[in-house]
Design a protein that fits this description.
The chain is an alpha+beta fold. 49% of the residues lie in helices and 19% in strands. It is globular, with a radius of gyration of 16 Å.
């Protein structure tokens, strides 16, 4: 019998691969940067009602920010997959500028730590925080670098899920 963790991991890898090829195709077709927006939600249940509402709230926030900066959305797609909500937008602007705007959303919002906002430039290269000279993201529980906590498995799944739901609930109340 196959472990449910292995099945969940296989679904995540499949979704990631599909997203990769979709983004690659969009950068080639439009010759413009692509925004991929998902949530960092631990565990298997990524589509609970509050998470869906939270994701939609931030899509609207991002769209308003883009509009305010006169950045056109050339194409967009939203899917609610078993692996989580996925928003992809092709944007008519400079990839590095878009990444800086998205980092503002991450830094200035209560729920920003849960946002997974990836920017792929028109040549399909991913624009990272480090490529802009910025530090890695912090752990939502202890404040160390998130990568370190993940590698060392410092926090158990229940603790992470509880913290994520708490952040989402507080953010939605604002």
């Amino acid at each position: 019998m196959i472990d449910s963790k292995i099945l969940a991991m296989n679904r995540m890898l499949e979704a990631k691969e599909k997203r990769y090829y979709k983004i690659k195709s969009l950068t080639e077709k439009f010759e413009s940067p692509v925004l991929s927006f998902m949530l960092n939600i631990p565990g298997e249940d990524k589509n609970f009602k509050e998470a869906v509402d939270f994701h939609k709230k931030y899509i609207e926030k991002i769209k308003k920010l883009l509009e305010g900066n006169k950045i056109k959305i050339l194409f967009e797609e939203y899917e609610n997959l078993i692996t989580g909500m996925e928003y992809i937008g092709v944007l008519d602007s400079d990839g590095r500028e878009i990444k800086k705007l998205m980092m503002e959303v991450e830094e200035e919002s209560l729920g920003g730590r849960l946002l997974d906002l990836d920017i792929y430039d028109k040549d399909f290269s991913q624009i990272s925080r480090s490529s802009l000279g910025l530090p890695e993201r912090k752990c939502i529980i202890c404040g160390d670098t998130a990568r370190t906590c993940i590698k060392k498995e410092r926090h158990n799944l229940e603790e992470l899920e509880e913290k994520v739901r708490e952040i989402i609930k507080k953010d939605l109340e604002i």
